[in-house]
Design a protein that fits this description.
Elements: H1 2-28, H2 34-43, H3 51-61, H4 68-80, H5 94-129, H6 134-148, H7 151-165, H8 184-222, H9 225-232, H10 237-258, H11 261-266, H12 269-274, H13 280-289, H14 293-321
Helix pairs in contact: 1-14, 2-3, 5-6, 5-8, 6-8, 7-8, 8-10, 10-14
Length: 328
């Protein structure tokens, strides 16, 4: 197992270097840049230098005056030391802005992820065991509806109903108007109140695919020969389903859930933007729109690391959920 993990980690490092280089090239080829905006603003001030002179000065300051290869090598050297530079959009160190926003997305994504598992997997199992009944048809229709809902449409619908017509929630933001006058516990509840609709949005648009995936794999397992043998031996149906069948259904589910790891830290860009939640998804969107290369580079490479880590965790968990699988 140790040899396998070490080998996978080394391969992941090589893949990460190539992914980071591709991201760096794309960032350098952006048609607009925050540097241009700064240089243009400074050049318009009375008695200031020209736009070209400001661009040369700012490019030298941020290392953008080098070629792509030397610039990437320079970026890698700073990244290894944990120095990702200052964000052009937020005028603070990249890591500082990341730490301020990532935990909001992690809490929101983590809660939504737990609800997604608690709702989708049991419903998928029920649909499989009640195949072609009204229960199965109802769950299938709900799953397809959730899967087909566009995020922006469903979020806008929730805001229209619960914010505009009922007035139960604010239209956006993480805190209320009187947040500063509240006590510590009340402040925490206020933030939780503002996260209700974003979490509901994330759960509803996510459970459809997991329900269908669970149902499909459960049906495949229930039709296997060893399940028929278990039933022929007189085992209780609950033991056949939840002990024998469900354990084998976990193998493909682990793959899907392991790939969901980046989503816990990545933030839901559309959802956070629509609800004005200052999570990592919203911050990264604002940074990319502004041409903030340092922050965008860090965020995209961080996403690549999480994706590689999620795949590694999925492979390792195979041996945990299925004794037949052993990693040599």
């Amino acid at each position: 197992m140790k040899k396998y993990i070490l080998k996978r980690l080394l391969i992941s490092v090589v893949i990460l270097v190539f992914v980071a280089f591709i991201i760096y090239v794309l960032m350098r080829c952006l048609p607009t840049s925050y540097l241009e905006q700064i240089a243009r603003q400074k050049s318009m001030q009375p008695g200031s230098k020209s736009f070209e002179e400001w661009m040369e000065q700012l490019a030298a300051t941020y290392g953008m005056d080098k070629g792509i290869i030397p610039g990437f090598i320079s970026w890698c050297g700073r990244a290894i030391r944990g120095d990702f530079g200052d964000s052009w959009r937020w005028t603070v160190p990249v890591t500082q802005k990341f730490q301020e926003s990532v935990w909001i997305s992690f809490v929101m994504g983590g809660i939504a992820f737990i609800f997604e598992i608690l709702i989708a997997i049991p419903l998928g199992i029920i649909a499989a065991t009640k195949q072609y009944t009204w229960v199965d048809n109802t769950i299938t229709v709900v799953a397809l509806a959730c899967y087909s809902l566009p995020t922006f449409f469903f979020a806008s619908l929730l805001k229209l109903v619960f914010c505009v017509h009922l007035g139960w929630f604010d239209l956006g933001g993480l805190i209320g108007r009187n947040y500063e006058q509240l006590g510590p516990m009340a402040q925490l509840l206020d933030k939780g109140h503002h996260l209700v609709l974003p979490i509901v949005t994330l759960v509803v648009i996510s459970i459809g695919s997991l329900m269908r995936y669970t149902r499909t794999n459960m049906l495949e397992v229930l039709n296997a020969d060893y399940i028929r043998t278990a039933r022929a031996k007189g085992l209780p149906e609950s033991k056949v389903i939840y002990h024998h069948a469900f354990r084998n259904t976990l193998i493909p589910l682990v793959t899907m859930l392991g790939g969901s790891l980046p989503g816990l830290f990545a933030g839901a860009l559309i959802t956070e933007t629509l609800y004005s939640i200052p999570g990592i998804g919203f911050v990264s969107y604002q940074s990319m729109v502004a041409g903030d290369i340092p922050f965008s580079m860090f965020y995209l490479v961080f996403m690549a690391i999480l994706t590689l880590l999620g795949n590694l965790i999925s492979d390792i968990l195979y041996a945990v959920v299925d004794p037949r699988v052993r990693i040599a």
